[in-house]
């Protein structure tokens, strides 16, 4: 067993067949330019649009792509790879161009959000990790933005690390939900990595480690006087709210304000109403109520519909796992090789061939009115969504700040047709396939293979 | 932004509240011994047992737990943490004991699979990552073993990296599915990391990059003569099978055998029957058929029920995301502090208090007959499932090899009651709560808090 580079950057986070195909490309000198596109074939039942995310990590991965000495050594010892191929791998870098939709952009089925134009082996090799990165963040951003739609104006915080699928999922879910409009995350690493604001209170274990609940509240408040949010559902929620009221004057005397309380179990709406009354009657009108526990866009919508007096929500597991749609039917497919368009015809998985572009039209109010999926260079009405982001293996511009991406996502949300701004409903956004693209597909199907 | 240690080992893969609680523990000198246990509260609808996995990664994490200089510096700059606390964090290591079920062990709701006994701050700090590691691998092993049950004797390979939730999920899904009985994975990094056998063929892009399908087959076979598995569904599956037959003598003359073909779309059973006939009629009786595409235990069971002539399966997305149950209702809870048992009473989330043990009884044939969840030291019939694995912060024995874990999981499967060896059904395994444990819970509920 070799200890290799860290999991976020090693090129061994790939499928074996990328390496075997690369050896065959090498042997047969297949190094012409290939065009691959990443797209989602069909949207999950409970999504009517998706939000592009993960591009920044893809660009970083492509810029840094390189096999290290230990990795090459390991590949060389496998028996199936010849020394001259391993040498070639050692020199391989990503030298291609990338076009992409900006992170935070709304998109629909069949629309590519990333296009890689590069020598075939380079474009092929990166497939597994490019999908792995784009798929996850796009899925989470698309789930998170539904929470934002369901709870407009509420403070939303990502609480999902513990049940996210591994450390990278936890970290990138924090990023994807923040860009979709969350206020921040509890995941610490997201702050030094991405500058995302952190939120956190206390766990039940803190309460339980103290003999008496009110002592736990007081100790926590005195240790962290700037951010006193007390968890009140460990034993009896309303009794604990009364203790908060009882404690408040003593803390106030020390200059400490109880900023909020957190509910984490039971009927959150019912508890919030009772707790709000107890706090208000106790003179704690400015103490906010924060709720967590099994939340998603549907429970948020219910709580808002019943006007539960809750100021903010911690949304965890169901968002970080996109639990109602834990994968997207996405693909990264060869669309053109050596200037010839390609098309897979597999049943149920046929793809639109050629190098494509998406045009989007808006009405006078700036609301999205329809997209056309066509061939690049064919022209069309409206703005084009795929723009160059890398040329000859290097990024064209400095990374967009996460704040800018977040603003773009918010602007996209405002441009959505009102029907799509609801978390349920049947209205579909119109995406048309251009006639030139249809003709190309038809022509390719007639080609002998 | 600071570039910190790699994501698999940094202690910043945690929730902010662990750090805030630790400062409060520090301020109030709460360093007595705490007992935390990890367990699953309720099983997902489509699971009647789970398989413990992820312990090895937890032990590694606990042994290496340490804040680095950059991490401490970053924490110190946040404003809410006092210098003396940051100094204390710098010296903090995990010095506790761990008891656990061996990886690969079958377990049920409410049964702890891990117990941490350590000074409160240490046991608290590790919560987020311990859950993150145990939850994911346990969920995947429990899904994977259902595929093994559904397709006994078939070659099963993990194909899930691309849609796994990030790189770590892809890597650890390869490990969890292998220990559950899969033959291997396509995820390259799993081989140098864990010694897991790799499998791989070719992608549609390889076929499409060649003008003519049969050329693609021949080029691939000549480049990788030891492992010729040809993907035949890019255009027309049966036509491609005929090309394989046509190509075989030419390759045979070069000493190359076509080991298998792969189907990846359409009605896999129907295609497999037609392809089997074409291959058999063409004299390729030993060429195997491998299938992939949207598989899970249910589709595997259907294909086996219809006796589809398929020799092996690539199982990807639905396993690596545990798509029908993408999270487990698990928790890591304080059960005892300073020798006093603790119990959370939150609605729907009450826990069994105290330091617990699981006893398991078997019948004369060695089949599991029932478990008792009781208090440690209370005694009971049958074997105990929680055994010491770390003492004073160090592992007690060298890591179990992954092969040994895999054998243990297979033995566990054989010991399951026959009713639970089916992927559907209603029989439940009997888990009894000991009367001593019930009495303790009752007594604690009467305690004033």
Write a brief structural summary.
The first copy, chain A, has 449 residues and is of the alpha/beta class. Chain A has 16 helices and 19 strands. In chain A, strands 13-12-1-5-3-17-18 form a seven-stranded antiparallel beta sheet.
Which descriptor suits the 3D outline of chain A? globular
Domain module count of chain A: 2
Q: If you consult CATH, what is the topology of the largest domain in chain A?
A: nicotinate phosphoribosyltransferase
**CATH homologous superfamily placement of the largest domain in chain A:** nicotinate phosphoribosyltransferase
Observed structural traits:
homodimer; alpha/beta; nicotinate phosphoribosyltransferase; 7-stranded antiparallel sheet; 6-stranded parallel sheet
Write the layout of secondary structure elements.
Two copies of one chain form a homodimer.
Chain A: H1 16-27, E1 33-42, E2 50-51, H2 55-64, H3 69-76, H4 83-91, E3 97-100, E4 106-107, E5 114-119, H5 120-125, H6 127-150, E6 155-158, H7 167-179, E7 184-185, H8 190-194, H9 204-209, H10 213-223, E8 229-231, H11 237-253, E9 260-263, H12 268-281, E10 288-292, H13 297-305, E11 312-315, H14 317-320, E12 329-337, E13 340-341, E14 356-362, E15 368-375, E16 383-384, E17 387-391, E18 394-395, H15 402-415, E19 431-433, H16 435-445
Parallel strand pairs in A: 6-7, 6-11, 8-9, 9-10, 10-11, 15-19
Antiparallel strand pairs in A: 1-5, 1-12, 2-4, 3-5, 3-17, 12-13, 14-15, 14-16, 17-18
Helix pairs in contact in A: 2-6, 3-4, 6-7, 6-13, 10-11, 11-12
């Amino acid at each position: 067993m070799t200890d290799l580079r860290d999991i976020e950057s090693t090129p061994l986070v790939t499928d074996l067949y990328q390496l075997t195909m690369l050896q065959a490309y090498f042997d047969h000198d297949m190094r012409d330019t290939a065009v691959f596109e990443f797209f989602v074939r069909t949207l999950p039942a409970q999504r009517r649009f998706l939000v592009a995310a993960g591009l920044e990590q893809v660009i970083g991965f492509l810029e840094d792509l390189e096999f290290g000495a230990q990795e090459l050594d390991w590949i060389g010892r496998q028996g199936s790879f010849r020394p001259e191929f391993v040498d070639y791998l050692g020199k391989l870098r990503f030298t291609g161009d990338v076009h992409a939709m900006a992170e935070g952009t709304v998109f629909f089925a069949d629309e590519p959000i990333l296009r890689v134009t590069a020598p075939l082996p380079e474009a092929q090799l990166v497939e597994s990790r490019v999908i792995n990165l784009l798929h996850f963040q796009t899925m989470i951003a698309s789930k998170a933005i539904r929470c934002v739609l369901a709870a407009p104006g509420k403070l939303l915080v990502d609480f999902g690390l513990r049940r996210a699928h591994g450390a990278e999922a936890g970290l990138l879910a924090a990023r994807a939900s923040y860009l979709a409009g969350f206020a921040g995350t509890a995941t610490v690493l997201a702050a030094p990595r991405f500058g995302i604001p952190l939120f956190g209170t206390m766990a039940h274990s803190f309460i339980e480690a103290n003999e008496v609940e009110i002592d736990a509240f007081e100790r926590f408040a005195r240790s962290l006087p700037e951010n006193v949010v007390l968890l009140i559902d460990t034993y009896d929620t309303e009794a604990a709210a009364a203790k908060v009221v009882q404690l408040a004057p003593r803390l106030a005397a020390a200059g400490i304000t109880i900023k909020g309380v957190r509910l984490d179990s039971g009927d959150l709406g019912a508890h919030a109403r009772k707790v709000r009354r107890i706090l208000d009657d106790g003179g704690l009108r400015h103490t906010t109520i924060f709720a967590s526990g099994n939340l998603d866009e549907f429970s948020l919508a219910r709580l808002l519909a019943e006007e539960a007096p809750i100021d903010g929500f911690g949304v965890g597991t169901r968002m970080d796992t996109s639990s109602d749609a834990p994968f997207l039917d996405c693909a990264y497919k060869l669309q053109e090789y050596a200037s010839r368009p390609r098309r897979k015809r597999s049943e149920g998985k046929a793809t639109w061939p050629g190098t494509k572009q998406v045009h989007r039209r808006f009405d006078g109010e700036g609301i999205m009115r329809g997209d056309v999926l066509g061939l690049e260079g064919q022209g069309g009405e409206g703005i084009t969504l795929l723009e160059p982001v890398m040329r000859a293996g290097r990024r064209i511009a400095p990374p967009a700040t996460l704040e800018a991406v977040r603003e773009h996502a918010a602007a996209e949300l405002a441009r959505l047709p009102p029907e799509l701004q609801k978390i349920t409903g049947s209205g579909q956004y119109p995406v048309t396939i251009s006639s030139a693209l249809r003709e190309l597909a038809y022509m390719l199907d007639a080609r002998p293979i």
